[in-house]
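Worked example 2:
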Amino acid sequence: MPPTGARPTLIRGARLADGRAVDVSIADDLVVDVAAPGTAPVPSDSSSVLDLDGYLLLPATADPHAHLDKARSWDAIMPPMGDLRAAIVSWRAYADHMTTDDIVARAHDQALRNLSQGTTAIRTHVDVLRGPQPLRGIDALVEVRGMLRSVMDIEIIALASDDVPTETIESAIDAGADGIGGAAHLAPDPLAELDRFVAIADKRDCVLDMHTDESLDEAVTLGALAERTRGWTRNVSAGHCVRLGTLEPANRDALIAAVVDSRIGVIANPITNLYLQGWNHEVAPPRGLTAARQLLDAGARFAAGADNVRDPFNPLGRSDALETAMLLVVAAHLDVEEAFTAVSSGARDVMALPPAGPAPGAVADLLAIRAHSLIDAVADAPADRVVIHRGSVVSRSSTTLTYPTLTPSPEIAR
């Protein structure tokens, strides 16, 4: 198998999610042909051939809602569990004293963990901080983005609370952020705060990605965001949208219709919202999820992300988009194909990235995983993976399983 960094021009022996065995030809950054086995031209240089017999070949995954600046800080903070506002307080206390180097180290580590699992594009929210150096997080993620530019795409959203001045938010764009976002539903005047972000995004012509209605019982900002950005050509997203999942059907469906009409991308965050929401419900706690089924049925642009990984907002997470897909199946009742689409092509669409995967004309961002089918991949999440970004092998992982008490001891390469 070609080493990391190799640029194969032919992939042989892989199987697609529809069950077909194929040869895939790649030129530069693109897939140029998907053909029946043995029919694609074989390059004279054998090192340009990647044999993936026994692997399922899928589009690489993407995470449209991450917080790389917070990732892997749980052990340093040891925050209280299960409360969104308490998580915010504990994170802010830690963030007031963290250094740029600390953020770089944790974010770089987390991004590589995502990459090893097959994620080649991440949109990360990054806090605009309090104190004399509010752009420490932005500067750190700009540095990490540069360090990893050859192996993955990282998009930075400057995440600001209502106590951050407008000029500081704009300075984050000047420092390298690709867009802005906030949690207007947590502000004393949610609609005024939303209007502030809409005005900044309009003025600076940048991505707008809002944390929206992250609550089981308050629906304030999603409809207003749809109304205020209807007709926009720039990229607009709404993350969480938890309240949408608990609204009465008539109100829910009217709000979804407005979202579809505005072309807002909705980003579910199952692991974090399932963890944070519903702790005060002693009997039959509601699912902390948006209305995924109804959004898809209505034709909404829909994606899902891991959100927080091992920080005050979620102590767990395996940095694997297949975990997110699995939760969409068991908690949101999507089918496996819909769930995987939400963390792959659906995520890239919401992020305004070009289509990727094993299809002619698509970007050669690919995940090969040792599995027989898509349901096998999502169910078992095998660790044997080959990750390709823009035609280059950027990560490889494999496992060996042994049963030492058996005679003879079988050794199974997984």
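Residues 328 and 339 are 6 Å apart (CA to CA). The chain has 14 helices and 18 strands.
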